[in-house]
Amino acid sequence: MRLPVYLDYNATTPVDSRVLEAMLPWFSEHFGNAASRTHLYGWTAEEAVATARKQVAKLLKTNLKEVVFTSGATEANNLAIKGVFEKYSYKGKHIVTVATEHKAVLDTCHHCEQLGGEVTYLRPDTNGLITPQQVAEALRSDTILVSVMYANNEIGVIQPIREIAAATHAGGALFHTDATQAAGKLPIDMAEEGIDLLSLSAHKFYGPKGVGALAVRQGVELTAQLDGGGHERGRRSGTLNVPGIVGLGKACELAQKEMNAEAERLCRLRDRLEQEILANVPHTFVNGKASQRLAHLTNICFEHIDGENLLLSLKDIAVSTGSACTSASVLPSYVLKILGLTDDQAYASLRFSLGRFTTEEEIECTIQHVIETVERMRVGSAV
Ligand SMILES: *Cc1c(COP(=O)(O)O)cnc(C)c1O
C-alpha cells in the first residue's frame, strides 16, 4: 500500500535525519544526568545542554540565560501564563489574549479565570488578524500579560507582533507569544521585537516530540509550575531530557541556516497548489488570506460539500480539518467559526501544510487528486 502524501506538517513533522544523528549518542553512550555535578558523565551531558541552549538562543536572537527547556509548547504556554499570573498577581489579575489562540493558551487562560483572573479575548477580523489598537484599547491598569500567537496553526496568519508588543509595553504589561508555528520558519528577534516570553516546540520544525522551550527575557519573573530539584534556574524542575534537548538544538541550527531557502521553495509549491485548486474547483476560497501568512500553508474551503465525506474520499493525501488538538471531537474549527464561516463551511475546509520533505511531484499528485475527488462528489450531489 502506498502511503498518502503527507501534507499535515503543522500537526507535526518527521525528525530530520541530521537531528536524529545528533541525538543518538545521548541515549546510551552519553547517558549522564545533566544535573550531576560530581563526575564526567554529568559534565558531558551538561555541556551538550549548554550547546543546545546556545542554538535555541541564537535562533531567537536572545540571551542564552533566558531559555528554559520544557516538554513542549503546551507546557511552555502553561509556564508563561500561569507563571506570570501567580508572580504578578499583586499588580493585577487581567490578561489579554485572542479568541483564535491554540487551546494550550485558551485553556490556560480559563484556568486563571477560575483562580480569580479576568481575561479579555480579542476577536480578529475575517482574515484572522488583530490590530495593535485593539490590544491598546483592551489594556487596563491591572493588566499584567498580553498573549498573542505569532502565526496561527490553522490558517497561518502572522500577527503584527512588534507593534502589539509595543502597545503592550506602553500599557505596562508583559508580552508573551506562542511562536510554535513561527519558530524555525520565520526570522525572530526577541529583543528587537519586544517579546518578553516566547514558546516553541521541537516537533513542529523537524525535532523530536516531547521537548520545547520557553524563552524568558532577563528580568521577567515566573512562579515555577513544577516543584522539585530547582532545575533550569528554579523555573522548571525535573531531570533534563538530554537527547531531546540536543535534538531541539540541532533543529534550531538547521532551521536558522535553511529557513529562507526553504520558505521560498515551499511558497512556490503552496502557491501552485492553491492557485490550481481555486482555478479548477468551483466554489472554493482561501481562509485567512491575509497579506502576512506562513509560506507553507493554505486552508481552503470547498463549499457545498460534506466535510467528513471529503476527508474520507481524499485517501491519497493526509491533511486536516481544524487543528489536530480539536479533531478528537467532531466540532467545527472554532478558529474558522470566529473568522465568520458557517458550520458547514468550517467542516468543508481543509488545511494543507507543506514541509521540508514535500516534493513537486507530491504537489502535482495532490492537485489532480483534489480536483478529481471534488468533481466526483459534486456530480454525486448535483451541486
Ligand atoms: C502544536 C502547537 C502547540 C502545542 O505544542 P506541543 O509541543 O505539542 O505541546 C501549541 N501552540 C501551537 C500554535 C501549536 O501549533
UniProtKB/TrEMBL annotation:
Keyword field contains Iron-sulfur: yes
InterPro entries attached to this UniProt entry: Aminotrans_V_dom, Aminotrans_V_PyrdxlP_BS, Cysteine_dSase, PyrdxlP-dep_Trfase, PyrdxlP-dep_Trfase_major, PyrdxlP-dep_Trfase_small
Keyword tags: 2Fe-2S, Iron, Iron-sulfur, Metal-binding, Pyridoxal phosphate, Transferase
PROSITE patterns hit by this protein: AA_TRANSFER_CLASS_5
Needed co-factor(s): pyridoxal 5'-phosphate
Known catalytic reactions: (sulfur carrier)-H + L-cysteine = (sulfur carrier)-SH + L-alanine
Pfam families linked: Aminotran_5
Stretches assigned to the Aminotransferase class V domain: 5-364
EC number: 2.8.1.7
Entry keyword Metal-binding: yes
Gene3D superfamilies per the UniProt record, alphabetical: Aspartate Aminotransferase, domain 1, Type I PLP-dependent aspartate aminotransferase-like (Major domain)
Top-level class of the enzyme under EC nomenclature: transferase
Superkingdom, natural source: Bacteria
UniProt GO MF annotations: 2 iron, 2 sulfur cluster binding; cysteine desulfurase activity; metal ion binding
Family classification: Belongs to the class-V pyridoxal-phosphate-dependent aminotransferase family. NifS/IscS subfamily.
Protein name: cysteine desulfurase
Organism: Runella slithyformis (strain ATCC 29530 / DSM 19594 / LMG 11500 / NCIMB 11436 / LSU 4)
UniProt lineage: Bacteria, Pseudomonadati, Bacteroidota, Cytophagia, Cytophagales
